[in-house]
Design a protein that fits this description.
188 residues, alpha+beta, Double Stranded RNA Binding Domain, SHC Adaptor Protein, 2 domains, 5-stranded mixed β-sheet, 4-stranded mixed β-sheet, Ribosome hibernation promoting factor, cytoplasm, Ribosom_S30AE_C_sf, ribosomal small subunit binding, RHF-like
Length: 188
C-alpha cells in the first residue's frame, strides 16, 4: 500500500502522517482486500481545514471523500468516517467483483478537454465563431468495467457521470445519475 499525504500551503507533521496511515490501514484492511494507493490532501479554506482522500483499489474502483472542520485531525476523522461508510455500504459488492476479477482493471488512454462556457454577458449577442474555445487539454484513463462495476465506481466517487469501456461488448458506454435519482446507461 502506497500513501501520499500532502498539504496545500500548510505543513503536515510526522504525527499526523502516522495517524492517517494507521487509521486508513485499519479501515482498508477491514473492508477492501487489496488497496493499491491512497492520496490524502490537507488544505485550509478560510478558518477551516479541508481533508480530501482518494483511495484506488486493486479492482479499479476509486473511493473519494472530502470533509471540513476547524481542527485538522477532526477534518481527517470526518473524511475517514465518510470513507468507512462508503466502503461498509459496498463491502459485499466489492467482494463479489473482487472474486470475479483475476487481474486489475484494464485502462485505456483518452484525451480530455475543458471547453469555455458562454460568457456572463448578454445571451442575445452572436459569438464571433461557432468553434468552442479549449481552456484545458489533458490525458484521462477510461476503465474497462462491467455495468455494475461502473455504477458502483460512479457512486463511490460521487461523480454525476462515468465513461467506461464495457467488458462484455467492448464498446464505450456511459452511466449517469438522472434528475429523478435513477441511474441512466448509454450503450451505443
Amino acid at each position: 500500500m502506497r500513501y501520499q499525504i500532502t498539504g496545500k500551503q500548510i505543513d503536515i507533521g510526522a504525527a499526523l502522517q502516522t495517524h492517517v496511515e494507521t487509521q486508513l490501514s485499519a479501515m482498508l484492511e477491514k473492508y477492501a482486500g487489496r488497496p493499491t494507493d491512497a492520496n490524502v490532501i490537507f488544505s485550509k479554506s478560510a478558518h477551516e481545514y479541508v481533508c480530501e482522500t482518494i483511495i484506488h483499489l486493486s479492482t479499479g474502483i476509486m473511493c473519494t471523500a472530502k470533509a471540513h472542520a476547524t481542527e485538522i485531525y477532526a477534518a481527517f476523522e470526518a473524511c475517514s468516517e465518510k470513507l468507512d461508510k462508503q466502503l461498509r455500504r459496498y463491502k459485499r459488492r466489492l467482494k463479489d467483483h473482487h472474486k470475479d476479477r483475476a487481474a486489475p482493471v484494464e485502462l485505456m488512454q483518452a484525451a480530455s478537454y475543458i471547453l469555455a462556457g458562454s460568457g456572463q454577458g448578454d445571451e442575445t449577442e452572436e459569438p464571433d465563431s461557432l468553434q468552442p474555445i479549449i481552456v484545458a487539454e489533458m490525458e484521462t484513463k477510461i476503465p474497462s468495467l462491467s455495468v455494475g462495476e461502473a455504477v458502483m465506481q460512479m457512486e463511490l466517487a460521487g461523480a454525476p457521470v462515468l465513461v467506461f469501456r464495457n467488458e462484455k461488448k467492448d464498446g464505450v458506454n456511459v452511466v449517469y445519475r438522472r434528475e429523478d435519482g435513477n441511474i441512466g446507461w448509454i450503450d451505443p
